[in-house]
Structures are given as structure tokens and as C-alpha cells.
Amino acid sequence: MAFVEVYPAVPTSRVSSSLLALPFDALEMIFHQLHPRDLVQLVRVSRNMNEIAIPFLYPTVHFHLPGHISATDALLSKLEAFSDQDFTLLRHTTRVLISGTWYHAYDEIESKLGLENVVSPAVRMLNTLITVCVSKMPNLRAFIWDSQIAPTQKLISMVALATRMEYLQLRVATDGSPTPYFHPTLKLGGFSKLRSLNIIDVKITSALQSVGNALYSSEQLSELAIWADEDVILSLDVIFSGWPGPRTLNLKSLDLRKFSNAGWSAPSLWQHISAACLRDLTLEVGSLLQPDDYNGFWEGAVAAGIRPTTLRTNLISEGLTNFIYSCNGLEVFLLTACLLPRPLPPISIFLETIISEHFKSLRVLAIHAQGPDESEYLLDRKLLASLSSRCTKLEELGFKILEQNQADVHLIFQLPLLRALHIDFAGDLNFDMQELSHLKLRKQVAECLSRMARHSLAYIAFDEGPVYAIQVNPVRWHVRSNMIWYIRDTVIFREKMFDWVSTIK
């Protein structure tokens, strides 16, 4: 991003005069669509245009760690400019992003200090400069830290002072090279106005305790996501154990992933969650959790009255079937990649419950499985035909099939509203076989679409991607994203935790 303040006025062009004549709402819409380079040109046009365009240059400040040392380091240039006491334009900033890879030349230093539980002076100085920048942002609403180095307590405390802070996302631990960098436990108190709290890569109990403190002091929190490191054993009970008294969280969205300890029993979790508010539930367990450990979990959710409209899970059991039966108007169901337990409910019974109970409301359905029993959860011709004829409101569909059954895919194009499609192939196909299967399927899909008078299909992906955007008349494919999870106007191709990536210009 260029660093722009006030430029000497130049004669106003006809274009700028036309822009200035527009209502502010229309100008705002136009400026939001412009690339920063275009905005830099606009602020040079005239003083009036400068005053209008400047705020649109700095709503998001992105500090990206480049990974290598360079004489023209954009990160350092930005920090030097923004931390200058005379630079006042950060008053327009509402969101801060920190991403990227720490300087590789410091790997050995960071790793050695990590073994001694010490944050390096270089990381601390980086945090200090960012802290200075944050102190100049009175309108800050969102702070996202997604890098393998640690944010310091001083920085997080400064972020907490932002009176309008609503969204906090922190990666609190990662694996560095050759050994993990040190991440001190952060005190997350003071974020009373938070609406969304997202904590990634939790490895230690003290980090969960800190999250618990933030939850207890929050007054308006509606979204909570905690992703644990699946290689460690952590219990969610730790979050609530330090609370000084009873408290119910009015969460609309709850996202818990990779926890592998049976200590997070249903009663200890659901007694702190308002069943009346919760609408979006994600529960993905780690590989260490045994089937016997979650037999009663879904029964506990049913007893607590949990009735989400969006459900994403890899915890499949008879109890899940009963839980789905108890829900009212399920709109989104995603069975994410999981190692299927034994015994497992047949896919036909599982799908029949979803179809019979929720065919009037179901908009998004994705069923994936992996491991030696994945063949038990593939969709065959009969199941695809049943879905296509009964779930006519489906807009997004994901499923796994055998390579030899791909001819059955044409059945799903009977869905009149289908706009996103994700197809996985079962088994371990080598690269050449996978590419050949993708080409065959692309040809088949193109033929199906060309025979249709009209269709709604906008996105399609095979296996891990890329995600293609579909254009019509004639049917054309172009890569929208090289990987899934980054298409924000979908469900099956979106991971909300990565939304910030698609906003970078």
C-alpha cells in the first residue's frame, strides 16, 4: 500500500467532477471496488477528492511478513511510515491483519530461544512497532494475527483498549523450524464488547484458561471458534472451571475442532450455551478420540435442546442420526472428512433421516469420509436419484463416489437451484488417473449443462481443487481459486476463518 496524505491540487478533470457530483453513498460503493493503486491516483486529483478518497485507502492495514530479508522490505517501510508520530491517517483504520512467514534467517535463533520459553528481541520489537500503530487507531474493530511468531501481551492489551473492538482472531501456537517458536500465554481480559472470538492452534491448558476469562467477561459475544492442536490432549472443561459463578453464553455460532479428550462431556458444555440462541454448530474431533468417548455426546445435545440450522461435524454415530432427527428445519449439513467408527450407521439410513425430516429446508449438503471404511459412505445411483428428486431446494452439494460410477453424476443436475458442486473420488488414485478422471468428469458436466435450457451452477471442484467458476453460452471454465475454502459466497467452498485472505488487494 502506498502512503498518501495530502498532495498539491492539480486541475480537476471532468471525471473527478462527475464523481464529486455523485451522492456519497454512490461514491462509497465505487471506492470500495477500487484497487489501492486507483485510489492513490484519485487522491492526487484535487484537494476535495483527496479528502473523500483518503479514508478508503486505510480501512484495512495489512502487515505481511515476507520470510526473507531484503533491501526493499515493504513490511519495514510500512512500519516506519505508520509509526511516525506525524502520520495521522490510521484514524481511518478499522481492521488490522498480521500474516506471513517470519524471516528464515532467524529460524535457528527463534528455535533455540523457544526451548527456553523466550520471545526473541526481534519479535518483541516488531510487536512494539505494531503496538504503536494500533495506538493510533481509535476506530479499530477487527484484529487478526495469523503468523507463526507470537503476539506479545503489550500488543494484545493495546488492542483491548480499542473501544469499538468486535472481532479478534489469534493463532496462539504453530510449529516453527526446526523447533516450535515460543508463544507466551496471553491474558485476554478486557474484550467486553467482542462479538466474535477465534483462537487457533491451542496447545496448552493455560491458553484455554485465558479464553475462559475472556468468555466470562464478554457481554456481547455471539461467535466463538476454538481450534485445538490434535496432537495434544486438552479438555474443554478447563474453559469453564475458572469461572467465579454460573454464566450462559448467548452464542449464535460455536466452532470446536480437534479436541481429543473425553473431559468435554455434553453436560459440562451445554449448560453454558444458550440453546435458544445457537444456530450454527461445528464440532470436529481429533483422531485420538475413541468412539466410546462420544457415544453420549449427541444424546446430551438433544436433552439440552440444541437445535441448530447449520451443522458441521465429523463425529458420526447413531447419536448423530437421532440428533438430526430432533432438529427443526436443518438448512446446512456438512459431514467433514473423518475416520469412520465401527459399527457405523448405514449411509442409506443416515441420508433417509436427513431427507425425510429436512427436505423442505435443506439448502447445503456435503458428505465426505476417509479411511478403510469410506466405501460405506459413498453416494451411489439410488441415493443420488433420491436426493435429486426430493431435496429440490438444494443449492450446494458435495459427495464422494467411485471413479467407475461417475456416469451417475448427471442425476444431480435435476436440482433446479444447484449453484456449487464438490465431487471427491474414493480410493487412492495416482496423479495421472486422478487427472484423467477429472477430465472425463469435466466433459460430462459440460455436456449436461449444454443440454439444459438454464441452470444455476456457478462453482465446481474435484477433490482438493481448484475451484472453477462456470460461465455459460458457451460453457466455459476458469479457475476462481487454486484451493477450496476461499469462495466466500458459498458454504461448501468457504472456511470463515480464512475469509481475511480473500479481502487482501
UniProtKB/TrEMBL annotation:
Question: Record's Pfam families?
Answer: F-box-like
| Superkingdom as given in the UniProt entry | Eukaryota
Q: Residue limits of the F-box domain?
A: 16-52
Identification of the protein by name: F-box domain-containing protein
Where, if anywhere, are coiled coils annotated?
none
